[in-house]
């Protein structure tokens, strides 16, 4: 699945060929498999991602999905995510838990895109 383009993922999600939970779990598995060597993620949010994927699958099943609904995404650690550590990759902010969502995160949530975590 990781070789699919975003367009192909969207087509498969909307056609019911795959679910957002399956796609999200696939990417979480890849993160577990490779991130120790790559060190791309500052924080991985598997519980949040699966919860968001389930909500995306419900939207898609109801015919309410948008173009990017259900496609997992990661974002830079500079964007606050409510209840998730946001350090901006800085030791000074190492224990900061964001009390709100940044605008970009709000838009990702509205679009139904599961958040895998935060990257360097």
Account of the protein in words:
The structure is a single chain. This protein has 120 residues and is mostly helical. The chain has one domain. It is built from four helices and three strands. Helix 2 (20-38) runs antiparallel to helix 3 (46-61). The longest helix has 19 residues, at 20-38.
Main features:
mainly alpha; 120 residues
In short:
This protein has 120 residues and is mainly α. The protein contains four helices and three strands, in the order ααβαβαβ. It has one domain.
Q: How do the strands and helices of this protein lay out in sequence?
A:
Elements: H1 6-15, H2 20-38, E1 41-44, H3 46-61, E2 73-76, H4 103-110, E3 115-119
Parallel strand pairs: 2-3
Antiparallel strand pairs: 1-3
């Amino acid at each position: 699945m990781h070789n699919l383009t975003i367009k192909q993922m969207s087509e498969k999600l909307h056609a019911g060929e795959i679910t957002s939970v399956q796609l999200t779990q696939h990417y979480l598995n890849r993160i577990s498999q490779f991130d120790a060597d790559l060190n791309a993620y500052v924080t991985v949010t598997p519980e949040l991602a699966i919860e968001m994927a389930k909500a995306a699958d419900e939207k898609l099943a109801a015919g309410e999905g948008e173009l990017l609904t259900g496609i997992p995404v990661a974002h830079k650690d500079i964007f606050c995510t409510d209840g998730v550590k946001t350090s901006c990759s800085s030791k000074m902010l190492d224990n900061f838990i964001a009390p709100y969502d940044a605008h970009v995160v709000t838009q990702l949530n509205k679009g139904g895109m599961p958040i895998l975590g935060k990257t360097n």
